[in-house]
Specification:
Structural class: alpha/beta
Strand order of the largest sheet: 3-2-4-9-1-10-14-13-11-12
CATH class of one domain: Alpha Beta
Order of helices and strands: HEHEHEHEEEHHHEEEHEHEHHEHHEE
Distance between the termini: 26 Å
CATH topology of one domain: Peroxisomal Thiolase, Chain A, domain 1
Number of strands: 14
Length: 380
């Protein structure tokens, strides 16, 4: 259905905005969210009254946080829908906004992700940064890292280079939680579980991200500068199936979701110029670059070492800094990826700009498991 809708009634990202991802502060989620929405409205050069619906993604805030936040922009009567889908909450909110516009229900829709990860969920690390208190994901990915090392003969130093790259990208991103370049020696310090070290794991905290999508009719009616728009050419959300014992669930789920997205967009992995991945742990970037078809299975570390996933390479992977460098405040993360892809396709990413970026892909996984993939392209 999504493929038919997006082709019959194209959807464009017309405005993006963020509040910097950061460790938990005294700021209210309302202030975080409003910062992102107002920036998106200014970016799109439209008024709040032009927005007809809003999808609010969050994983932590609880019941219906959207109205207490958005009422500060004016009681316009727009429809508000709340989305909770774990780490994929923001991605799912963006998908619903796109499908509402594509279906003709409205012409302009807002997707916003906002969250504040508090003390009930997190513990503090040696540097005061919030990290998930539950050991389950950490231990699981530590085991997965060891399995990857053993299966493909890859050293932990080669895997840790993902963090070196992504912290380097984040250093040039004013919205990133971490804005400091790291050497391999620094990344290899402070082990937390098995081969994983602190800087090979994403930080948690707070932040917000917003994206406004619109139809062609709205672009014309509101006199929006179409040269800065990014068209959404694929939107896919899948959940897990039963896989064989030799298969990794999140890898196979990503592979299947990516195939469906490529079919929708009528492109292949070789057409991608920029990708934002769910790299909560370093090994994930290697696994997902392989699952997306950017390189062969077991060749993710080689793909990185050859510079093919760096800015200026074959396909820039996580030029924002990814979850590892930019941060992962849950609700905003998926929408933040869309903002980065849009900025890259516009050619507005500054020192982290991928040259001649024309097509970008955003990928998020949510515990459960679900996988959401969007593909955007620059208008010629």
């Amino acid at each position: 259905m999504a493929i038919t809708l997006l082709r019959q009634r194209p959807v464009y990202v017309i405005g993006i905005g963020l509040h910097r991802y950061q460790k938990t502060s005294q700021k209210s989620y309302v202030e975080l969210g409003l910062t992102a929405v107002r920036e998106a409205l200014v970016d799109a050069r439209i008024s709040w009254t032009d927005v007809e619906s809003a999808y609010v993604g969050n994983a932590i805030l609880g019941m219906a946080p959207g109205r207490p936040m958005l009422r500060h922009l004016g009681a316009s009567g727009l429809s508000i829908t709340h989305i909770e889908n774990a780490s994929a909450s923001g991605s799912t909110a963006f998908r619903q906004a796109c499908l509402e516009v594509a279906s003709g229900v409205c012409d302009v829709s807002l997707a916003i992700g906002v969250d504040k990860i508090g003390a009930t969920l997190t513990g503090r690390s040696w540097d005061g940064t919030e990290h998930l208190a539950s050991p389950s994901p950490l231990v699981g990915f530590a085991l997965l890292t060891k399995m990857y090392m053993d299966r493909y003969g890859v050293s932990i130093e080669k895997i840790a280079e993902v963090a070196v790259k992504n912290h380097g990208n984040a250093a040039d991103n004013p919205y990133a939680q971490f804005q400091k370049r790291r050497t391999l020696e620094e990344v290899m310090k402070s082990p937390v579980a098995g081969p994983l070290t602190r800087l090979q794991c994403c930080p948690f905290g707070e932040g917000a991200a917003a994206a406004i999508v619109a139809s062609e009719e709205a672009v014309e009616r509101l006199n929006i500068n179409s040269s800065r728009n990014a068209q959404v050419i694929a939107s896919v959300l899948r959940s897990e199936r039963v896989y064989g014992p030799e298969k990794n669930m999140i890898v196979e789920l990503t592979r299947e979701t990516a195939k469906q997205a490529f079919d929708q967009a009528r492109i292949g992995p070789d057409d991608l110029d920029v990708v934002e991945l769910h790299d909560a742990f370093t090994v994930e970037e290697l696994l997902y670059t392989e699952a997306l078809g950017l390189c062969e299975e077991g060749k993710g570390a080689e793909f990185l070492a050859e510079g093919r996933s760096r800015i200026g390479g074959q396909c820039a992977v996580s030029p924002s800094g990814g979850l590892i460098g930019m941060g992962h405040p849950f609700g905003p993360t998926g929408v933040g990826q869309i903002a980065e892809i849009t900025r890259q396709l516009r050619g507005e990413a500054g020192p982290r700009q991928q040259p001649q970026a024309h097509i970008g892909l955003a990928h998020m996984v949510g515990i459960g498991q679900v996988c959401v993939i969007h593909i955007l392209r620059r208008l010629r």
